[in-house]
Write a structure and sequence with these properties.
Layout (H helix, E strand, L loop, with lengths): L2 H11 L1 E3 L25 E3 L6 E7 L3 H14 L4 E4 L4 E3 L4 H5 L9 E3 H4 L5 E3 L3 E5 L4 E4 L3 E10 L3 E3 L16 E2 L7 H10 L3 E7 L9 H15 L6 E7 L8 H13 L3 E3 L2 E7 L4 E6 L6 E5 L2 E3 L4 E2 L31 E3 L12 H19 L12 E8 L2 E7 L18 H19 L8 H7 L5
Parallel strand pairs: 2-7, 3-4, 3-10, 4-7, 10-21, 12-19, 13-14, 13-19, 14-15
Antiparallel strand pairs: 1-11, 5-6, 8-9, 9-10, 11-20, 16-17, 17-18, 22-23
């Protein structure tokens, strides 16, 4: 199958992934998944073994797997089920390094069966409708599953097709995207094949997961061309729909210094609307001047696709007007349905969509559900903690951590706005270990306890 037709199919169903940055894995929901053998002792079935579960989890990405592990310990494995059609689970934060040639794609993937908590039912299907008034959901083939408690962890959908000329443009060289398993290695190829001209990196006019990723690959590319003697031939441009380089001033100031030092051009309020891959042209709209577009030739183009809520959540009773799951920003409990909860990228929590956010949310949601199960009011409050390790080179990271108010909420008693080798190794080596061995097993609720220890209880 051609890449374009494969990506088009994925676009049509919405490429769903669960959070990312410091974060967790992401999965691409693909049609026609093969049934795979069960791993460990969990149940893997194309159709559910039962039609009722005490806890039903929608989505087998970072949020869904960590919450199913936590719920298993509360109500027993046989009373928990996860609905997830994808046979592969990805740790997507690694894709920045895959696109930059520093890691292999295979190291970011594991069979979904291997990360599913033992004994938890894995329903290999796709949710087609939610009916919270009747405490049930509908799956493919008109299968109905009822629940006592529902956790929605459906991630965010990628929409390459909203850019004219994509996804079919990926069949051409010199264009890649670190946001899809099918295009991330094309980024590395374009980076290596670069000869001379414009290298353009984009940021769309929609919410995205891991808002730092679109510029991380730019810094890696710049470092690679310096290392290979091509830097003087590259005109590096960051064309972003936003009006700022980063949403937290402390880190934005540090990034602007790096951008100035490395002679990178930033064009604000520029949104990619068309790719003419056969001519190597990218067309941007000027968001400050409606109707005005500009065309740039490129020798390399990295696309960050528009994103949005999964189709099944649009116009759903559990969602807000846009399609995000409508939850209380402190407890993660649904605003209307007290036995429904949301976590991660699919929610309308006003924080950056990352895996670090999922980790912090999981600890809060665990306590929220425990109290709701005892008919008590939730007390633990999520402060919006999220994190983005801003990769600025092959051995440098600025570790951005912040809260709902876009105020730094740093773990270590050092200035984290400075580039550090230690933080790079944490991003490249420690965080994947933490993800697979702690977060997905329901034992990592974010760095708050470490932060208290590091700051001697002062924060």
């Amino acid at each position: 199958m051609h890449l374009a037709s494969h990506l088009w199919k994925m676009s049509a169903i919405g490429v769903v992934s669960s959070c990312s940055c410091l974060r967790p894995g992401v999965r691409l929901l693909k049609p026609g998944m093969q049934q795979m053998g069960s791993f460990g002792l969990h149940t893997a079935a194309r159709c559910a073994a039962k039609d009722y579960y005490e806890v039903l989890v929608l989505g087998g990405g970072a949020g869904g797997i960590t919450m199913s592990a936590r719920m298993k310990r509360k109500v027993g494995a046989g009373n928990v089920a996860v609905v997830e059609p994808s046979k592969t689970h990805y740790y997507q934060p690694l894709w920045t390094l895959v696109g930059g040639g520093a890691k292999r794609l295979a190291t970011s993937a594991r069979p979904t069966g291997s990360v599913m908590p033992k004994g938890v039912e894995w329903i290999k299907s796709r949710v087609t409708a939610l009916d919270p008034d009747k405490n049930c959901v509908w799956l493919e083939n008109d299968i109905k599953i009822s629940y006592k408690y529902l956790i929605i962890a459906l991630g965010i959908s990628l929409h390459y097709e909203k850019i004219k000329g994509l996804p079919e443009g990926f069949d051409h060289p010199k264009i890649g995207s670190n946001y899809s398993v099918h295009t991330v290695e094309k980024t590395w190829k374009a980076l290596q094949d670069f000869k001379e001209g414009n290298a353009i990196f984009t940021f769309p006019n929609t919410p995205v997961k891991c808002a730092g990723a679109p510029q991380k690959i730019m810094y890696l590319s710049e470092a690679y061309w310096r290392k290979t003697g091509k830097r003087s031939k590259a005109n590096i441009m960051f064309n972003t729909s936003l009006g700022v380089i980063f949403g937290v001033k402390k880190y934005a100031d540090a990034l602007l210094e790096i951008i100035k030092e490395r002679n990178i051009a930033v064009n604000y309020k520029r949104n990619l609307v068309e790719v003419r891959a056969d001519k190597q042209e990218a067309v941007f709209e000027n968001l400050d001047k409606p109707g005005v577009t500009e065309v740039h030739q490129y020798e390399m183009l990295h696309v960050t696709p528009p994103m949005g809520p999964p189709d099944v959540l649009i116009n759903s009773p559990v969602s807000d007007q846009i399609g995000w799951v409508d939850v209380d920003k402190e407890t993660l409990q649904h605003k209307k349905y007290p036995n429904v909860f949301g976590i991660g990228d699919c929610t309308n929590l006003p924080t950056s969509k990352t895996a670090a956010a999922v980790a912090a949310q999981s600890g809060v949601l665990d306590k929220t559900i425990s109290l709701v199960m005892k008919n008590q009011l939730p007390t633990k409050k999520y402060d919006g903690y999220t994190s983005c390790p801003l990769v600025t080179g092959y051995n440098k990271v600025i570790l951005a951590e912040f809260d709902y108010d876009a105020q730094p909420l740093e773990t270590f008693p050092i200035d984290q706005s400075k580039e550090r080798v230690t933080m790079y190794h944490m991003k490249a080596d420690m965080m994947p270990f933490l993800y697979w061995n702690m977060l997905l097993k329901g034992y990592w609720g974010g760095p708050a306890p470490v932060r208290k220890l590091m700051h001697l209880g002062l924060k």
